[in-house]
């Protein structure tokens, strides 16, 4: 269609624009969570994440230093200090000394508190309070400030969630649990499936077609059906609810896909190579290990990625087969669901936890996209 | 023992176990049972080759039967029984199904699942087709594709968190932090909506999450199919004066019909099993129950294994037509 004369330029423009819209729509939700994971809880709660990249106007309630900081100067009692830490650069636009009138003073003005003491506040947040009487009470007075705060992104959330050993919401243990579930559950089915796929692709025996049909059928059996019978089985033979059970379950559930993908790929390998090897006296075992396995690397990689993503992202299997009252073995997905219940409003925790769990699959996705696409095409298009 | 070491040991034991099994079983077959020498060498080789496929397939067949085939029948059996207080099971016939039929939540789940089945595969395939058609014509199409495809790598739970932030609602006097409400108010909406509690529409908002994930999958596969169309057919249509719409709907779409069907059924299967999104976002409240979550409720919250198994069988029943269709297709290709 590209070569319809005279329409190309306007069409190309429209196509580009629609793809931009599509990509932005698809990216926006993820970006929102990603940006949020770098903001403090206060920031997330007071403004939308899309404002995080621009300076924002915020109303802050600040408390000046208490009476213990006062010094006597020429009969006046003085407290000096600053509201903002060194290096931070919010700019105060207006301020006030009472919650009913938060914008009556400009920076540099001198305001008055109800007890008669005065305060002078400059734009950078440094202040000087003066009073004829000594300051009393245990806390300093409140000042209400409207300030332009620059965008501020922090790694604090990640530090808290990953490296603080005392944090009950910490994700480091869950991260390890997920890793412990995922790696064996990815590696074991590949080997088992590869041998079976070779037999189904290149060995002639009665019932081969029927077996392949069975694999295709099992491909779509919902794993929901397997939960109760397998849980009963695991409890009966003493595996219980632990890592071993999850590994076995993931292996079983991943096998149909593995066999199907690998068989399709192996069946497409050139017949000559295998027959030559047979004529040369290679045993089937040697043919498989020396020829078929290396040649099937792309298919093995595709399946490995699938299985990795699937086991890493799984919630149901882990929830059923891997339960531990102490929470030692909770995987990240289960932990996040837990946090959604207990910390529903604390977006800084939720967003960061979610991103810790998402980051690994995303990395795998962007590094290995070629194999993933290839596997998808082999697995579904015929 | 540290679970990480446990994991490493499992990998080592599992992998060496697998290799040892295959290596030794082949060795025994060739050297001990049917040695390829002596008076019966020829007959032995044939016999060994008769046995070998089953050696290769035994672990897989064993695991498949135990982890997928057996549970189907066991679930069927469990759905016809009931736990007796004090242990054991008794045969109760169809009473689990009848009890389920009287449960309003079950029908809510069925109706919602049907809605999901109608909307999600259709929308994902349509968006995927549009995205494929558009991205194939621009220079940065590859990048656009991988960005649209990206949600595929995100877990349903992760997606649930992502979209919960999108749907977040706060009282009107506070600033909105959910982008949907911010846009809604920006466009003149009267007050912020708690999207996930609006009856009926909350189902749609949950579906959007899955559509967002599955569109990339549909796009990748349909794009490959579109590129596989012989160019002559499109060129011939242009020569005959067809316009863009005609080329798309009358030339291209019919040629990739079988691929569209495959994408549609694949997403349909995913929809039938959908659990995580509903579980994490609403847990079936506010009229958003679906079958898989209903089943989870019955199995692990209500601890009613009979009814849980019965609802699992309903999912199986819904999957069955696709299963049969897939198997028939596969058999046709093999011939």
Strand line-up across the major sheet of chain B? 1-2
Distance between the termini of chain B: 52 Å
Specify the CATH architecture of the largest domain in chain A. Answer: Orthogonal Bundle
CATH architecture designation of the largest domain in chain B: Orthogonal Bundle
Radius of gyration of chain B: 27 Å
Multimeric organization: heterodimer
Please state the average pLDDT score of chain A: 81
Question: At the third CATH level, what is the topology name of the largest domain in chain B?
Answer: MetI-like fold
Note the total helix count of chain A: 14
What's the name of the CATH homologous superfamily of the largest domain in chain A? MetI-like
Low-confidence sequence ranges of chain B: none
Question: In order across it, which strands form the biggest sheet of chain A?
Answer: 2-3-7-6-5
Structural class by sheet pairing and helices of chain B: mainly alpha
CATH level 1 name of the largest domain in chain B = Mainly Alpha
Q: Tell me how many strands of chain A there are.
A: 8
Low-pLDDT residue spans of chain A: 1-7
Return the average pLDDT of chain B rounded to an integer.
Answer: 84
- The CATH superfamily name of the largest domain in chain B is MetI-like
Overview of the molecule:
- The complex is a heterodimer of chains A (382) and B (335).
- Chain A is an alpha+beta fold and 382 residues long.
- Chain A has three domains: 8-51; 56-149, no CATH class; 160-380, Orthogonal Bundle (MetI-like fold), CATH 1.10.3720.
- In chain A, 55% of the residues lie in helices and 12% in strands.
- In chain A, helix 7 runs antiparallel to helix 10, helix 10 (297-313) crosses helix 14 and helix 12 (332-342) runs antiparallel to helix 13.
- Chain B is mainly α and 335 residues long.
- Chain B has two domains: 3-79, no CATH class; 103-334, Orthogonal Bundle (MetI-like fold), CATH 1.10.3720.
- In chain B, strands 1-2 form a two-stranded antiparallel ribbon.
- In chain B, a hairpin with a 5-residue loop joins strand 1 (81-83) and strand 2.
- In chain B, helix 1 packs across helix 2, helix 4 (104-135) runs antiparallel to helix 5 (141-149) and helix 5 (141-149) packs antiparallel against helix 8 (201-227).
- The relative contact order of chain B is 0.10.
- The mean pLDDT of chain B is 84.
- The chains are: A alpha+beta (382), B mainly alpha (335).
- At the A-B interface, helix 1, helix 2, helix 4, helix 5 and helix 6 of A face helix 1, helix 2, helix 4, helix 5 and helix 6 of B.
């Amino acid at each position: 269609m590209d070569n319809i004369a005279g329409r190309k330029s306007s069409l190309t423009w429209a196509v580009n624009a629609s793809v931009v819209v599509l990509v932005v729509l698809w990216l926006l939700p993820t970006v929102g969570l990603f940006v949020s994971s770098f903001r403090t809880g206060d920031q997330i709660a007071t403004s939308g994440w899309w404002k995080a990249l621009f300076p924002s106007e915020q109303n802050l309630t600040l408390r000046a230093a208490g009476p213990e900081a006062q010094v006597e100067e020429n009969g006046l009692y003085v407290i000096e200090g600053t509201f903002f830490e060194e290096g931070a650069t919010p700019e105060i636009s207006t301020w006030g000394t009472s919650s009913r009138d938060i914008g009556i003073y400009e920076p540099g003005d001198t305001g008055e508190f109800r007890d008669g003491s005065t305060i002078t506040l400059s734009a950078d947040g440094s202040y000087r309070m003066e009073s004829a009487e000594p300051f009393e009470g245990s806390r300093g007075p409140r000042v209400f400030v409207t300030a332009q705060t620059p965008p501020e992104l922090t790694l604090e959330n990640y530090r808290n969630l990953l490296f603080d050993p005392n944090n009950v919401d910490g994700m480091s243990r869950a991260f390890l649990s997920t890793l412990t579930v995922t790696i064996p559950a990815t590696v074991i089915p590949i080997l088992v499936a590869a041998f079976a796929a070779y037999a189904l692709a290149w060995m002639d025996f009665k019932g081969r077609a029927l077996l392949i049909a069975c694999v295709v059928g099992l491909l779509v059996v919902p794993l929901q059906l397997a939960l109760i019978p397998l849980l009963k089985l695991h409890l009966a033979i003493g595996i219980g609810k632990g890592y071993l059970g999850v590994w076995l379950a993931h292996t079983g559930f991943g096998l149909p896909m593995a066999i199907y993908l690998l068989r399709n790929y192996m069946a497409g390998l050139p017949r000559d190579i295998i027959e030559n090897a047979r004529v040369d006296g290679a045993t089937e075992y040697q043919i498989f290990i020396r020829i078929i396995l290396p040649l099937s690397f792309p298919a093995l990689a595709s399946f490995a990625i699938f299985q990795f993503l699937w086991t890493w992202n799984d919630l149901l299997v882990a929830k059923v087969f891997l339960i531990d009252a102490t929470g030692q073995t909770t995987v990240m997905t289960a932990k996040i669901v837990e946090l959604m219940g207990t910390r529903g409003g604390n977006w800084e925790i939720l967003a960061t936890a979610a991103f810790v769990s998402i980051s690994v699959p995303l990395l795998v996705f962007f590094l290995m996209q070629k194999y993933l696409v290839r596997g998808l095409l082999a697995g579904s298009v015929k | 023992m540290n679970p990480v070491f446990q994991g490493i040991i499992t990998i080592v034991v599992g992998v060496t176990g697998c290799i040892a099994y295959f290596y030794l079983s082949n060795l025994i077959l060739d050297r001990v049972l049917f040695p390829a020498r002596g008076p019966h060498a020829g007959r032995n080789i044939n016999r060994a080759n008769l046995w070998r496929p089953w050696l290769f397939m035994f672990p897989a067949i064993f695991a498949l039967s135990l982890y997928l085939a057996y549970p189907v029948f066991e679930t069927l059996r469990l759905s016809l029984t009931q736990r007796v207080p004090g242990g054991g099971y008794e045969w109760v016939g169809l009473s689990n199904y009848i009890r389920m039929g009287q449960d309003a939540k079950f029908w809510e789940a069925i109706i919602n699942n049907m809605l999901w089945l109608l909307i999600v595969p259709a929308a994902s395939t349509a968006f995927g087709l549009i995205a494929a058609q558009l991205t194939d014509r621009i220079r940065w199409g590859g990048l656009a594709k991988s960005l649209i495809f990206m949600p595929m790598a995100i877990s349903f739970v992760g997606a649930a968190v992502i979209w919960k932030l999108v749907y977040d609602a706060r009282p009107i006097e506070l600033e909105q932090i959910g982008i949907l409400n911010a846009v809604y108010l920006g466009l003149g909406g009267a007050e912020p909506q708690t999207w996930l509690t609006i009856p009926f529409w909350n189902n749609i908002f949950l579906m959007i999450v899955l559509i967002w994930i599955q569109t990339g999958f549909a796009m990748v596969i349909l794009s490959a199919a579109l590129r596989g169309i012989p160019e002559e057919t499109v060129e011939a249509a242009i020569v005959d004066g067809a316009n863009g719409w005609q080329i798309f709907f009358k030339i291209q779409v019919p040629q990739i019909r079988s691929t569209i069907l495959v994408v549609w059924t694949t997403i349909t299967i995913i929809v039938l099993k959908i659990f995580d999104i509903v579980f994490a976002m609403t847990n079936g409240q506010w009229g958003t129950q679906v079958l898989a979550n209903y089943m989870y409720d019955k199995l692990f919250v209500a601890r009613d294994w009979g009814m849980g198994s019965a609802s699992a069988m309903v999912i199986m029943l819904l999957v069955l037509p696709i299963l049969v269709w897939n198997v028939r297709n596969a058999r046709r290709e093999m011939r």
